[in-house]
C-alpha cells in the first residue's frame, strides 16, 4: 500500500537559469463532457511498495530555512520516521468550516466548473472534509504552501481534470493575501512576491496526438506530448491521464493508435494505455533530473453517471450528499492498477496522489447540469468534472500534505 512513509526532505535550489514561462498551449477544445470509464476488473491488486525517498536529500533547502515561514522543516539527510497512515484511505466528514474559498469568490475558475454561478445553490456538498482513517491531515495553509513554492515552478500535465485541480490550487493560494498575483498567458499563473509560477499543459493522453491536415488523427503511443519537454526542469511535475482512455474517445482503437510509422488497425484501449504509460515512465526516467524535480501522479477521479453513460444521457443531478457506505463505492479502476505496476518499475521516485477512493464517494460533487452555458434540464450532464470549490480542493490538500510531510518529516499522529 502506498503510505506517506519514508518521505524525506523535499527541497532543492531554484535553478538560476530557469526562464519564465511564456508558451501558449494548445487547448484541446471542449472537454465539456468527459468519459465515464467503466471500472471493471479489480483483480490485479498487487502489494506495491512505493519508494518515497527524497530525491533532494543532499541539497540546500532553499525554501525551508526561513524562520518567518513558520514551517518546521527537518534538516537534510534525515530519514523520516514511518507512520502507518495511508492518507488516501478514509471518509468524508461534515465540517462547517469548509470550503476554503467562497463559492463565487475565485475569478480563475472556468465557467464550466463554476457551479454556484451557474445556478447550483445547494451548498451542502462544499461542507465536507476528507478524514483519513489513521491520522489527520493538515488544513491547507496558503501561506505555508506559498513558502514551499517560493522560487519554484509547478506544472500540471494532463486532461481537463488537471485543469480542475490547477484552478483549485490557484484559488487556494489566492486566499493568502499580501502577494501580487498575475495571470500570465493562457494557463500560466505567476505569484510575483514569491516568484512562483504554476502552469497547466493540456495533454489528455500524455502522449502525442498527431493530426495531419485532412487526415484522421492518430495517437502516437511511443512519443510524449511535445510541449512537456519545455517543462521537464520544473520543480514539481504533476501528471495525470485517464478519462480519455475510452473506446469512444479513441475511435474504438480502429486505425487510431500509432507507433513509429505503424498505425494499428485494431488495438484495444487497455493495450494502448499501457504502452502510453510506459512511454511516459520512460520519458520521466530519462528526462527528469530527480535532484531538482519531484514527480507526482494524480490518480483517477471517478465519474458518477446514472441511467446511462457520458454519451448516453447519464445523469447525476439532484445528488446532494456523498455515498456513505464504502461497500457501494466503485472498485478501484484498472487504469490505476496498471499505473501502479508501471510506477513500481520506474527508477524515478513518484509520489502517487491516490485520490480515486476519495472521489468515488462524491456523487454529489459534479456540475451535472450546472456546467455552464444554457441551463438545460434534460440536456447532457457533466458527471466527470467537479464543481469548484469542491472535490479537487482535497487533491490540493493531499498535495500540500505531501509537500509538508516530505519536508518536515511525516509528523502525523495516529
Ligand atoms: C490506492 O487506493 C486504492 C483504493 O482505495 C487501493 O486499493 C490501492 O491499494 C491504493 N494504492 C496504493 C499504491 O496505495
Ligand atoms: C525566480 O525563480 C526562478 C526559478 O523558478 C529563478 O530562476 C529566478 O532567478 C527567480 N527570480 C528572482 C527575481 O528571484
Ligand atoms: C552530500 O553532501 C556531502 C557534503 O556536503 C558530500 O560529501 C556527499 O558526497 C553528498 N552526498 C551525495 C549523495 O551527494
Ligand atoms: C539556516 O538559517 C540558520 C540560522 O538563520 C543558519 O545558521 C543556517 O546556515 C541556514 N542554513 C542554510 C542551509 O541556509
Ligand atoms: C523569509 O520570508 C520572508 C517573508 O515571508 C521574506 O521577506 C524573506 O526575504 C525570506 N527570507 C529568506 C532568506 O528567504
Ligand atoms: C460508444 O461506444 C459504444 C461501444 O464501443 C457504442 O455502442 C456507442 O454507440 C458509442 N457511442 C458513441 C456516441 O459513439
Ligand atoms: C478488433 O478487436 C476486437 C477485440 O480484440 C475484436 O472483438 C474485433 O473482432 C476486432 N475487429 C476487427 C475488425 O478485427
Ligand atoms: C540536476 O539538478 C541539480 C540541481 O538543480 C543540478 O545541480 C545538476 O547539475 C542537475 N544535473 C543534471 C544532469 O542536469
Describe this entry's structure for a reader:
This protein is α/β, with parallel strands linked by helices and 414 residues long. The protein has one domain. 18% of the residues lie in helices and 14% in strands. The protein is built from six helices and 13 strands. It has helices at residues 142-149, 160-174, 269-287, 334-344, 356-360, 392-408, and strands spanning 90-94, 128-132, 153-158, 181-183, 188-191, 196-202, 207-210, 218-224, 236-239, 257-259, 262-263, 294-298, 350-353. A seven-stranded mixed sheet has the order 4-5-6-3-9-12-13, covered by helices on one side. Helix 2 (160-174) packs across helix 6 and helix 3 runs parallel beside helix 4. The longest helix is centred in the C-terminal third of the chain and has 19 residues, at 269-287. The radius of gyration is 20 Å and the shape is globular. The model is unreliable at 1-82 and 408-414 (pLDDT under 50). Bound molecules: 2-acetamido-2-deoxy-beta-D-glucopyranose (8 copies). It is found in: Membrane. Belongs to the PC-esterase family. TBL subfamily. InterPro entries: TBL, TBL_C, TBL_N. The chain crosses the membrane at residues 20-37. Residues 137-401 form the Trichome birefringence-like C-terminal domain.
Overview in brief:
The protein is of the alpha/beta class and 414 residues long. 18% of the residues lie in helices and 14% in strands.
Largest sheet: 7 strands, mixed
Summarize model confidence as the mean pLDDT.
Answer: 78
Number of strands: 13
Radius of gyration over C-alpha positions, nearest whole angstrom: 20 Å
H/E series? EEHEHEEEEEEEEHEHEHH
* Beta-strand fraction estimate: 5-15%
- Derived structural class: alpha/beta
Q: Which strand order spans the largest sheet, edge to edge or round the barrel?
A: 4-5-6-3-9-12-13
Helical content, roughly? 10-25%
The total of helices stands at: 6
What's the overall geometry? globular
In this entry the ligands are:
2-acetamido-2-deoxy-beta-D-glucopyranose
Subcellular location: Membrane
Main location: membrane
Family: Belongs to the PC-esterase family. TBL subfamily.
Transmembrane segments: 20-37
